[in-house]
Design a protein that fits this description.
Rossmann fold; seven-stranded parallel sheet; 8 helices; globular
Amino acid sequence: MSNPDKKTAIVTGASKGIGAAIAKRLAQDGFNVVVNFAGGKQAAEAVVREIEAAGGAALAVQGDVGVAAAMPKLFAAAEHAFGGVDVLVNNAGIMKLAPIAEVDDATFDAHLAVNLGGVFRGMREGARRLRDGGRIVSFSSSVIGLYQPGYGVYAATKAAVEAMTHILAKELGSRRITVNTVAPGPVATELFLNGKPQALVDTITKTIPLGRLGQPDDIAAVVAFLAGPDGGWVNGQVLRANGGSV
């Protein structure tokens, strides 16, 4: 059951992985949550049911953030259901790795549409419609500090997200809206593990000083800090949550 007196968060790409963990953590922290999904309707609805079973309020809303109409739709749904929006988490993203010489135009365009365009449109809509004192949290990646072969296009989109974060934080400061980005290291999600042989995963794990891959809940805790009262003085920053790998 919704509570209009509670703060409301939109989490993009929240049907699984890090996004689902963020949605559940923010609900646990007292937020109404809009669980965005592109194609995983059943998974998104399962996240909503889990939140509701724990006494929270959530709503699953379809929308491909790579398409211009998605963000206005998400904000409209949140405003209709919960009265307004206080937190936007730009989590949705894609990652298709290949050497730059082998990246075709369709793959390049898809990365721009989702990883950069989706975040840009989220930031733009958030700047227009978030309530004063709100929070915008976007996602980069710790690969920005590694410059690994195969990550050229993916890393380029994430670098652009970091640049927009620094600028938007200055543009929205007068409204007490903080704008930050989380840059995870390797996290045990489908996005990261897909297509990687176990030997490669083991090799990557050995490069992390803490000796393990991150878990979605590790990243959700960082987002919860930025979205919550203790993160109010953190603004215009990129927080690397990677176990010390960079």
